[in-house]
Design brief:
Blueprint lengths: L1 E5 L11 H13 L7 E5 L7 H4 L3 E5 L6 H8 L2 E4 L8 H8 L4 E4 L4 H4 L6 E4 L4 H15 L5 H11 L4 H15 L4
Parallel strand pairs: 1-2, 1-4, 2-3, 4-5, 5-6
Helix pairs in contact: 1-6, 4-7
């Protein structure tokens, strides 16, 4: 089971929350059942490994070819986005566009992107206990389940062209129909 995470400066930028993910994965490991889990990380060449997290880790470094990133998303089971500060993170949209559910904190723009239990799982902001539960729920829910259609449909409806343009057009039409007061 592959948990995918990453960002530019994934390990060095505290706002990306990698330390929170490490703590949550350690909690998952201490609860057992993680023998077949692996963490994939892009945006870093090296970092904490099996001895720290309790699960194997593969550091993918910087993804240089744009075509490689979708393949990594598609090879994973779930995308973990543990940002402390983020508005509308591209990585959440990329994961959903590749048909992958997202685990994140119920904070900032992430709470508006992820439909809890439908396109991902939301954890109590910055609680590693809650994040561990969300990760475990995501991994267990993806066993034998095809989340790709739901996640991809949500992405296409809300974020892929021409979805946002249609939404804005509908909003403008609605506003133009209202009388000025």
């Amino acid at each position: 089971r592959f948990v995918f995470t990453g960002a530019v400066g994934a390990l060095n930028d505290e706002r990306k929350g990698f330390g929170l993910l490490v703590d949550a994965l350690r909690k998952c490991w201490s609860g057992g059942g993680t023998e077949k889990w692996r963490l994939l990380v892009f945006g870093a060449d090296a970092g904490p490994g099996l001895e720290t997290l309790g699960i194997p880790v593969t550091y993918c470094g910087t993804i240089k070819a744009e075509s490689d990133l979708p393949r990594i998303y598609q090879a994973s089971d779930v995308f973990a986005l543990t940002s402390i500060q983020d508005n509308l993170p591209n990585t959440a949209l990329e994961a959903m566009g590749c048909g992958k559910p997202v685990v994140a904190f119920r904070s900032s723009g992430l709470a508006g992107i992820i439909s809890d239990g439908r396109t991902g799982w939301l954890a109590t902001p910055f609680s590693t206990d809650s994040l561990a539960v969300a990760i475990r729920n995501a991994i267990e829910a993806t066993y034998g389940e095809d989340w790709s259609k739901v996640c991809r449909a949500e992405f296409e409806r809300n974020y892929a062209w021409p979805g946002p343009a249609k939404s804005y057009l509908n909003l403008y039409d609605e506003m133009l129909k209202k009388p000025l007061s």
